[in-house]
Amino acid sequence: MVGLPVRANMTGKLQVAMLQDQQLDKEEVTSALSQFELLWPPFGKETDAWAIATDGRGQVTEEDLAKHPKCKFLAVAFVGTNHIDYEACMKRGITIMNCPDYSSRTVAELTIGLTLSVLRDIPRAEQTLRGGGWAVSAGGMEIHNKSIAIVGLGDIGFRCAELFSAFGPKEMLGWSRRRKPRFSEPPLNGQQIGLKDIFERADIVVLSVLLTDDTRGMITRALMENLRPTSVLVNIARAELCDHGALVELLCQRRFRAALDVYPKEPLPVDDPILKVPRDQAVIVPHIGYKSHEALQRRLALVVENLAGAAGGAPKNVVTERH
Questions:
Q1: 147 in Cβ contact with 202 (< 8 Å)
Q2: What CA–CA distance (Å, rounded) separates 164 from 189?
Q3: Distance of alpha carbon 318 from the chain centroid
Q4: Is the pLDDT of residue 1 over 60?
Q5: Average pLDDT over residues 240-254
Q6: Please, which residues have CB within 8 angstroms of residue 93's CB and are 6 or more apart in sequence?
Q7: pLDDT the model gives residue 37
Q8: pTM as predicted
Q9: Is 120 buried (19+), middle (13-18) or exposed (0-12) by CB count in 10 A?
Q10: 99, 124, 174, 258: least buried by Cβ within 10 Å?
Q11: What mean pLDDT comes out for the span 234-260?
Q12: pLDDT tens-digit map of 141-200
């Protein structure tokens, strides 16, 4: 049930509990949300917050919600909401709102960068040069004339496909739970096929699927074993899509290469086995896919729009299922 604001505080403003700083300057956030009174952590006692805002870092648990018992809205400054205790929100009558498509371009651009980093061995080349060396490898590979596969044809997946198409791939393959006619039309001229066929045919496989109960663990050991030593698996979605143990083991066996921006636990623990993978087998970065200045600005604008809509009785970007 959508909760309407029944009263504001003595200043006449509805209170919003900010769990994080939105990864922007606090003054900038305060100015953008000036129609509300913002409450910042730590929260030593229960608040009268009408809404909670979170930027996607860390979990939002029943314990967090209990500190704001009058909360009716949860503004998630992220696309995915799998870090939210969805059942607890529903039990408390809290409406969840997210920020769709604020980072598609940013994530897609990083996807190209990660792919090139693996194919051209860019990180190791820099390390070699800084260490006083010169020669790194016998030569890298091009994206041109390669089979590209996008697993997950949402906003990010389509943007990735558009950028890859500029390199002149041999074919553009895709997988989605639903048919996406636009994918098969010009200029992409893509072909939707099954997951097994994708892992058998593609030179570069990009994972851009939302994490749900249905997609968790969908990239199995059996699928990854179909990749070749020259293949590249790029995960800019969620680590839980893959069998992480199998991924690490197969990379250590040099069965394929990978570029990763997401991990089962974040920040990455120092004992995560992915750190044992040879550097020439995987390029790893600390979940920066969504994080450009432009994307964070768009995200804040969506948070403002969502909260303003909710305050006016017409919440936007309402999440109806965990994803």
A1: yes
A2: 12
A3: 18
A4: no
A5: 98
A6: 1, 3, 72
A7: 98
A8: 0.90
A9: middle
A10: 124
A11: 98
A12: 999 999 999 999 999 999 999 999 999 999 999 999 999 999 999 999 999 999 999 999
Instruction: Identify residue 176 by its one-letter amino acid code.
Output: S
Q: Confirm if 98 and 76 have CB atoms less than 8 A apart.
A: yes
Q: Token pair of 204, please?
A: 């570069």
- Calculate ∠ Cα 108-154-82, nearest 5°: 95
Residue 117 has pLDDT above 70, yes or no: yes
Is residue 205 a contact partner of residue 199, using CB atoms and an 8 Å limit?
Answer: yes
Q: Produce one character per residue of 146-183: b if its CB has 16 or more CB atoms within 10 Å, e if not.
A: bbbbbbbbbbbbbbbbebbeebebeebbbbbeeebeeb
Bridge partners for 75 per DSSP: 53, 97
Q: Is the dihedral of CA 192, 195, 199, 204 positive or negative?
A: positive
User: CA dist 314 to 47, 81, 223, 261, 305, Å?
Assistant: 24, 20, 44, 35, 10
- Report which of 210, 277, 225 is spatially closest to residue 255, judged by C-alpha positions: 225
Closest alpha carbon to 281 in 168, 124, 147? 124
Q: Is 123 exposed, middle or buried (0-12, 13-18, 19+ CB in 10 A)?
A: middle
Give residue 259's Cα distance to chain centre: 14
For 150-159, the pLDDT digits (tens) are: 999 999 999 9
Please measure the distance between the N-terminal and C-terminal CA atoms of the chain and give it in whole angstroms: 19
